[in-house]
Structures are given as structure tokens and as C-alpha cells.
Amino acid sequence: MNIIFDYDSLVNLKKWFASYVASFKLEDPDTLKNIQLKEIHTSRVCTEIVNIGQQLGLKDDALNVAEAIALLHDVGRFEQYTVYKTFKDQKSVNHAELGVEILEKYDVLKHIDNTTKNIITRSVKYHNRVALPDNETELCLFYAKLIRDADKLDIWKIVTEYYTSNTSKNKAIELDFPDTPSFSKEVYADLTNKRIVDMKNVSNLNDFKLLQVGWVFDINFQPTLHFIKKRKYIEIMREVLPKSKEIDSVFDIVNLSLVN
């Protein structure tokens, strides 16, 4: 199946995205701060996906599609935060599904062939799911895995810098979880069984940090693993979690997953 998406199409998509995001920059300072957070995140995820894609041998239109998916993966975040003042889907709306609705509402992909349009739309829709659907094409799953890897890389950058900085608290980054001691047994059980943490078991900031650590179990491509190890994201996450034998055991399992 051929992917058709030339550089001019990507440039036009970037122009639409910039204009769309600009429409949210007239809000209050707190909202503006978090709109800009997601705008910068999007730019970096575009860079991450191109880096991964190039190492996997993607070129030309195939690489352009990957970048287009990265550009649009969080397009729902801007309306989500403006309306609900949170990035927590459980307290507001599924931002990926909202993103697809926005793409359809504004007919953003109207000049793109149906095959490529469907790949982009479904990859956006799937990027935040706990697991990818079984009944999908290999091509769609490839791009969905690509955006999931690239997205995680930049979220790790954001949170590791945030957790280790002296900047003021940002509840949007913490998804409004309370910064209380300890962690839940359910989160611990998920991780020791190499499972992605179920968000319904996350009750505080330590649980949320452990959920982010557990993303290692959902990495799809070798270049992504290389970047995780090179940037020492997991080592940094260990430093911002409580000292305990249980958490040490979680990181033993996680580090083995990075090696294997």
C-alpha cells in the first residue's frame, strides 16, 4: 500500500496547525502557559518521530506522514484544556478522540487521499490507548506504534525536567494527582508483571510517576530504546521516587526490559 503525502502537503498542514493553536492564545495566563506547553511538546514529538523514522529507513512521503501524525496527535489538547482546565482525560474528554473530531470538523485532511487520511486519523485516535487494536492493518499499526514511541520520549523529557526542577507546581503536568507518600499495591502489581499500569489504579503522584516508568513495556522500536538509555530517563525517574525495596524491584525489572 502506497503512502502519498508530499512535502507541500506537510507544509500546508503546519500552517493550519499554527493558525489553529494561535486561536487559543487569547486566554488567561494559566491557560496560555499550558497551551504553549502542548505546542512545544508537539514540535518536539515531530522531531522525535522523524529521528526514529529515519533510523528505521523511512524516506520522503512515508516520513512526511509520520511527521503529520506527530503534528496532529495532540490537536485535541488545546480545546480540552481551554474548556476543562485539565489534561486528565478521565476528568474531561478523551483528547485523542476529540482530536479526530476536530480534524473532521475543520476538514483538515480534505486534500489528502483516503488511504493516507485514514492512516493519519486512526494513528491519532489510537495514540493514547492502553493497547492497540488487533483488527488493524500492519501499516496503520506501524504508524500508531511510531507516534506512541515518539510521544513517550518527549513526555519523559517534560516530566523528568519538571520533577527535578525547582519551578512552581503545574497541576496540568501532574494531572491533578495529590503529592502524597507511598504508592498503590495495584500499580506495583502491574509493573512487576510487566503490564502497563491501569490508570484507574493511579491515586497519587508516585503512582503516576510509576505509570510513566512502566511505559518501557510498550516501546516498539530499537531506536526509541536507544534514546531512552542515552538520555537516562529511567535513572532520573528512579531518583524522584521513594526509596524502597519494592520500587527497587520495579526498576530491576524495567532495566532488564531495556537490555532485552
Write the layout of secondary structure elements.
Blueprint: H1 7-22, H2 29-55, H3 60-72, H4 76-84, H5 95-105, H6 114-126, H7 138-163, H8 185-192, H9 205-213, H10 222-231, H11 233-239, H12 245-259
Helix pairs in contact: 1-3, 2-3, 2-4, 2-7, 3-6, 5-6, 6-7
Q: Features of this protein?
A:
260 residues; mainly alpha; Hypothetical protein af1432
Any overview of this molecule?
The radius of gyration is 18 Å and the shape is globular. Helix 5 runs antiparallel to helix 6. It folds into two domains: 7-149, Hypothetical protein af1432, CATH 1.10.3210.10; 177-259, no CATH class. It has helices at residues 7-22, 29-55, 60-72, 76-84, 95-105, 114-126, 138-163, 185-192, 205-213, 222-231, 233-239, 245-259. The model has no long low-confidence stretch (mean pLDDT 96). Helix content is 63%, strand content 0%. It has 260 residues and is mainly α. The protein contains twelve helices and no strands.
Give a quick summary of the entry:
With 260 residues, the protein is mainly α.
Q: And the CATH topology of the largest domain?
A: Hypothetical protein af1432
Main structural class = mainly alpha
Residue share in helix: 55-70%
Series of H and E elements: HHHHHHHHHHHH
What portion of residues belong to β-strands? Answer: under 5%
- Going by CATH, the homologous superfamily of the largest domain would be Hypothetical protein af1432
**Low-confidence runs:** none
In the CATH classification, which architecture of the largest domain applies? Orthogonal Bundle
Overall geometry: globular
The major sheet is characterized as:
none
CA gyration radius, whole angstroms: 18 Å
CATH class of the largest domain: Mainly Alpha
Number of individual domains: 2
Distance between the ends: 32 Å
Oligomeric assembly: single chain
What is the averaged pLDDT score? 96
Separate helix tally: 12
